[in-house]
Amino acid sequence: MTAIAAAVGLSGGAALYGLWPEESHLLRACAGALMFAAVSVPAGWWLGWKYDRLARLSVMDPLTGAYNRRFVETGFVKLTARASKQRKRMAIILLDVNDFKQVNDSLGHAKGDAAIREVALALRHCAECGEIVARWGGDEFMVICPYADDKAVATLLRSVRERLEYASLRTGIRLAVSAGVAAYPADGAQISQLAQIADTRMYADKLLAKRDQAEQESAQAMAQ
């Protein structure tokens, strides 16, 4: 479309410029302006599109399509300022893929990447109330919730885990996550504070899941 617009504008402007006599200064000036616009407008549009695309890529994780850590760290100040003005609370959820190293070691990095993408897909699918999904780093994800209601957070996590169970059956990769939650402003005002608290609670959840799994395996072994 850009090439067509430029071609039409240039050819039309050139034709008019050549047809009009020398003394028709106003008409010749209009023709020149038409040719200039035919070049500058598409070029400006293209440069603007490239800038927007690069700006978007700078805040997106290329593997998962989720936001990246840079986006969260730079945008969280604006989110908290808005929440403070409206006297609203927020919650952040930090999630870690269980046994991810085992997936990489036993199945390969391609399967590991596939597992990361499936977790991101599940999070984005379940984010139906304005939640922001970001890849925090490695096999960790962060979800920023525009609410701090315990029931709403529990519902979101339950939906994510159910979807990962289906994804596990479909892909043949065991997909499960551990999660920790921190609330703004009760647990802190900075993203670093909230992430640290959520991280501590996430690892407590991970240890609990490992203990439950060990007890189930022990019970199965005794039953046999």
TrEMBL record:
Domain GGDEF residues, every copy: 88-219
Spans through the membrane: 25-47
Coiled-coil residue windows: 197-224
Keywords: Coiled coil, Membrane, Nucleotidyltransferase, Transferase, Transmembrane, Transmembrane helix
Enzyme class of the recorded protein, top EC level: transferase
UniProt cross-references to SUPFAM superfamilies, sorted A to Z: Nucleotide cyclase (SSF55073)
GO molecular function: diguanylate cyclase activity
InterPro entries per UniProt: Diguanylate_Cyclase (IPR050469), GGDEF_dom (IPR000160), Nucleotide_cyclase (IPR029787), Rev_trsase/Diguanyl_cyclase (IPR043128)
Signal peptide coordinates: none
EC numbers for this chain: 2.7.7.65
Protein name as catalogued: GGDEF domain-containing protein
